[in-house]
Structures are given as structure tokens and as C-alpha cells.
Amino acid sequence: MKKLTGFMLLIFVLILAACGGGGDSSSDAGEADAAISVGDDIEGATELSFWTFNELHMDLFEDSATQWNEENPDKPIKLNAQTYPFDQMHNNLSLALQSGTGAPDLADIEIRQFSNFLKGDVQLEPLNEYVEPELKNNVEERFNLYEKDGNYYGIDYHVGATVMYYNQEIMDEAGVDIDSIVTWDDYVEAGKQVTEKTGKSMTTVETTEQFSLFPLISQRGSNYFDENGEVIMDNDVNVETLQFLQDMIHKDEIAVAAPGGFHHSEEYYGFMNDGGAASLMMPIWYMGRFIDYMPDLEGKMQIRPLPVWEEGGNRTAGIGGTATVVTNQSESADLAKEFLAYTKLTEEANVKLWTVLGFDPPRFDVWDNEEMKADNKYYDYFHTGIFDMLSEIREEIAPIYYTPEYSSAQQEVESTVLYNVLVEQKQTPQEALTAAAEAVKSRQSD
Amino acid sequence: MVNDPITNKLEEAPSERVYKKPSKLAFLNSKKVAPYVFISPFILSFLILTLYPTIQAFIMSFQRVLPGNVEFIGLSNYERIFNPTFFLALKNTTLYVIFTVVILVVIPILLAVFLDSKLVRFKTIFRASLFIPSLTSIIVAGTIFRMMFGESDTAVANQVVTFFGLEAIDWRYNSWSAMFLMVTLASWRWMGVNVLYFLAALQSVPKELYESADIDGANVFKKFRYVTLPFLKPITIFVVTISIINGFRMFEESFVFWETSSPGNIGLSVIGYIYQEGIQQNDMGFGAAIGIVLMLIIFAVSFIQLILTGAFKRSDE
Fold it and tell me: A443 contacts in B (CB within 8 Å)?
């Protein structure tokens, strides 16, 4: 009996200990990772709530709300911004819109998730009155992504132009002049030289996300869907492109599968920071990741346009993006829209997108703005001239057609196609993409 | 302010007694009604939290559910279910169920017998340390597991592996190691609970039977086989049933390692698939249909298992 009492006592103490630790994991279901509030002290301010999944984005809105209240004393706002984990935020938002209650005034929706929010009766407010007059100054593609039946529902943070980041140190060691790389064939040849001379990989390929595949097929004018919404995942260009990635890894052996599976994994940051690969294809907004997670590469990285597939071909592609939307549950939707336009559409706002967030702003008429040239940590890390290069390749972003099934197509690619073809090699690119196309079509049919 | 509720109660209590006529509440005391009053909290929560959602899910499985736009689409959700991804999820889940059931029944029985033996010392420490894991949050435990089984050569698991001269393993990127991770996490966590069940059952084995077995000259293994095991049968059926149901409902064990999308779906469970389709792809109708199918599968498997183990037969003893 004594033993039993001792046992129970021990368990009891441990339960207490465990509850202390376990408590926060069970309760965080409804709590934000981070939250800020602007305009608390202003009497009569209209409350606007904002959900995002990226803490950085709150900085922009905080900055903007403060300034708005200074400039518009007649209609002040009280902004409550909250950051939730990625999946949780999107799931909560879609459930809130589905059930008709609980949604915020403003919310960020990541591009891959966006198509889900265009299904059925769209529960978002059209932003045409603000967007349409500004389209001519913007990279229009970024607005078409969030358009349905002539209504623009979202405003993006950046262009997301895909570029090649070269590690100058490794390229020099291998004796490769990065400016001599014009086509992908040149790139592969240079890769062989790098691998031979330095023993390092030329690049890395994502196997659980699509940032290696999608920009390449988009660069070649292909996509998962054509302009009529038909599935073209298994067309020749896509199959060839996937084959190209497979060859880089397994035939030419100049690339490796990204450690951790994708370019945002902790394993990957460590690998790159140690000079793991000589180059990397990612969008401009990836600069922030270099600065935050790969401090040892400061000053060593050079940004260049992508190699081309054939002469005169596109030298970049758009990928990624996050749109801020106004939901139809907002009680002060008009104010929310005006504030959103103020935060993300004006010239001043677009300068902030660069100075605060380090993004390539959608408004190209600010790219040569003096304020954009002021020294900042991005120029320190990557050298100047980023926007001169962007201006040069701005017209070369191919349109992307998003359909309601886009996120399901992406799901197929990320969970099955890339792994089966690039890692396990148990399917050919043709087989894997055909199977994925069939899976997506089966959803479309009903 | 703090005292208010108390004083209120004190004031109200006697007044209620005065005003309420005894006849109004008397029926509660009747022998026929009282049992229903006692079970009503459960019945109510069952009706509201289980039966209603189940019926709703059943209806939704025939619908396409979109904001402001819900329509019946017949069986087309069900027609779409039997696709390669679903079968992969079902295969993963089934393997997981088999492994966890075997591991979580056989090993706890042995451990319980050892812990019940007079020869083992420091039983309290052993029992407690086996039981502690079940107190942890699976998310917390999973995060630690994920770090231990990281890809780098310096992660604990890979240090052990390389110590034995083997190649470091990408634990989260092979299908066999993915299953290993999920089963290990579940086994580690539930081992102690099951040991506790079996320990409790062992207390009900009459000591006289061991004594008479001794007299008949039975050795340790024979005593285990012919005395201990038969007495453990009812609890074993219980543990197996619970393990099967929990196994088919597995979600967190996969979520902690890969969140919602694993390479080549090596960690996809049926519940994970429901989450992916219903919530992430915003296709509630399809998600509900998978849920209904899963319910039927669990029902069928449990039913077969209970028939085979004779749980429905009247016990002779």
C-alpha cells in the first residue's frame, strides 16, 4: 500500500509539472503569436482588425496606421493587428467566411490559398475603385492574380520576381564568370565546372515545395492551367522542365535536393550559410531570408536575372505573393478599403514596401525613386542596382492563371510529383505529372 | 464583491424552498425518472456534440459546401474518394494501426508481468517513468522527437546510427522511417497507460492458481501461458479495441513531423487527408464523405475484431 501511495504521489507531482508545460500548447489554438494595437488612446476611432501570418507585415500596417491617424484626424482608426501561424490563420479565415461570422476587417491571404477564397459567392469586398486608377503604374499581373469576374479582391505586397542568387566566392573559385551565364545550357555547363573544381553543388532543388519547378515552367510560359482553366499540368513543357530538374540532380549531378526538402527549412539555411551550393533560384523577397538566416554570406551574394531557355526568352517569373483583402463582414468596409489603399497602393506606401519590408513593390514608377536608393541592409548585403535590374526584366513576367483548383494542383506537385520524380525516381516526369493532372481534373469535374 | 454570490445564495435558498411546491419537483424523485435525470448531462452532450454533427456531416457528404452556395451533388463526393491518395492514406493508417496494436499490447503485457514480479526492485520508479510520457502533450513530445530525429549528422538519432558505423538517415524523408517515427512516438507515449491497465488486471489473478500450478510442476512460461494470459483476455480485448480506434483516428503523430504535407505523402493519415481536403482545400463536403467512409471502416474493423475475440459471447465465468 505504501508503494502505491508513493507511486500516486509521484504521478500527482508530475501531473502538476506537466500541466505547467502542456498548458500553453493546448491553449494556443486561439491565441495570436504576436499582436499590436495602434490608436488605442484616440476617442471615437473606428476599430479595424487585421489578421496576418507574417509578423513582418504587421510592421507595415503599424507604420501606416500611425501616419493615417496623424493625417486624418477626422476619421481616426484603431488598428488591432494579429499574427497567427500560417495554416491556422487561413483555416480560421475560411471557416469564418464560410459560417458568416468572426472574420476580421482586413486579412492577408497567401497566393496559393487565394483560389479557395474565390470559390462560391466571394466573401471579400471588391477593391476596384482604388485598384483600377492605379493599374497603369503597377505590374498588372500582380492584380490579375486576385481578380474574378472583373473584380479585384486583393492587393499584393510585392512583385516576387524570381532571380538567381550567385555565391561569388564559389563561382570565383571555380573560375566561372557569372555574367557569361546566359542560357540554362550555360548554367548547366558552369555547374559542371563548379562541381568539378570545388566539389560543391551548383544549386539546390526543392522536393516538398514548388519554388524550383513553378518559376521554371512559368518562365517558359507554361502553367498548371491554361487561360480557359483547363488542366495542362502534363503538357510537354512541364514534363521537359521536370526532366531538366531531375537531370540536374541525377544525370549531370550538379544539383542536390534541398536539405530539409525546401528553401525555407532550418536545415537549408544552415547548409547555404556554410557555402553549401553556388547558386540558388528564388524570388527577390528571399533576400530577407539571407539577411536573417545566412549572415555569413553577407557581401558574397550577387543577384542576376534567370538564365533563359532560348534567346530572347523571359529572364524571370513571378511566384509567391500575399494579398491583403477586406472581408464582407467588416462593419466599416469603406474605411477599411480606403485604409488598405493608403497602406499598399500609394507611391509612398510602395516605397515603404521596400524600406520596411525589403520587397520589390508592385508599383514600378517608384523603382527609380531617390528614397529607394538610400542605403539599407539589403544593399549592404547584396550590392546596389537591384531595381535597375528589375526594371530591365519587369516586362518578362509571364501571366499566371489561377483557377479555383490551383491549390489542389500545387498540393499534388508538392506532396507527390516532386518526391516521386526527384527523390525516389519511381515515376518518370510524364507519369507523375499525368497522374497529378488526372487527380486535379477529377476535382474539377464536379 | 467577492461575498455577493455567497450571500445571494444564502438568501435565495430558503426562499426557493418556500415558494416551490413540492409536487412540482417530486417527479424527480420517482424511481423511473431519477436515472434519466442522472444520465441527462451525458445524453444532452451526446445529442448536441456527437449526434447532431454526425448527422450534419452525413448530409454534408452529399453536398458541395461553399460560402453562400450550398447544393446537393448526389454521390459525386463518394465517387471521388477512392483515389490513389486516399488509398495511400488508408495504407499508412492501417500499417500504423497494426504496428501500434501489436507493440502496445505485447510489450505492455510483458512489462506489466515484470513490474508485478517480486524479483524486480524500484518498481515505483519504473512504473512512474513508464507512465510519465502519457502526461506530456503530444505536440511537445513530437517537437522533441523531431529534433532528435533531425537530418543532420549531429542529431541524437543519427549520432547513434553513425556510432554503429551506419550512414546517417534522413528520418523524415523515407517511408519506412516515417512510419517508424510515428509508431515510436505513439508507442512511447501510450506504453505506460497500457502497462497500467495490465497491471490492474494482474491484481485480479487469484494467487491460488499459481500455487496449484506450482504444485503441478508448471514452469514460469507455462504459468504465464495458462494462468496469466487467460485472465488478461478481457482487458486485452479492451486495449486492442481502443488502440484500433485511436490508431485510425491518428493525426497529431503525423502533424508534428510534417505538419500538413509530407514528402510523397509518406506520413499522410486518413484524418490528415480529411483535414487537407475539408479544411485546407475548403471542400467540406468531400471531407465529410471521407469521414463517413472512415467511420464505416472503423466500425467494420472493430466489429470483426470483437466477434473474433468473442467479446459478444456470454462469458462462462
Answer: 80, 283
Q: Are A444 and A231 in contact (CB under 8 A)?
A: yes
Residues of B in contact with A407 (CB under 8 A): 280-281
Could you tell me if A287 and A358 are in contact, meaning their C-beta atoms sit under 8 angstroms apart? yes
Residue A28 pLDDT: 38
Which is more confident, B307 or A401? B307
| CB-closest option in B80, B124, B151 to A6 | B124
Residue A3 CB neighbours (<10 A):
10
| pLDDT at position A81 | 93
In a mutational test of the A interface, the residue from B281, B284, B286 whose CB has the highest number of chain A CBs within 10 Å is B281
The A residues from 56 to 75 touching B (CB cutoff 8 Å) are: none
- Name, in order, each residue with C-beta under 8 angstroms of A87's C-beta and a sequence gap of 6 or more: B259, B260, B280
| A106, three cell numbers | 482586413
ipTM exceeding 0.90, yes/no? no
The pTM is what? 0.78
pLDDT tens-digit series, residues A227-257 = 888 999 999 999 999 999 999 999 999 999 9
> What is the spatial distance between Cα A77 and Cα A48, in angstroms, rounded to a whole number?
7
- Choose among A14, A407, A411: nearest Cβ to B132: A14
Q: Which residue of A has its CA nearest to B192?
A: A11
Distance CA A185, CA A190 (A): 9
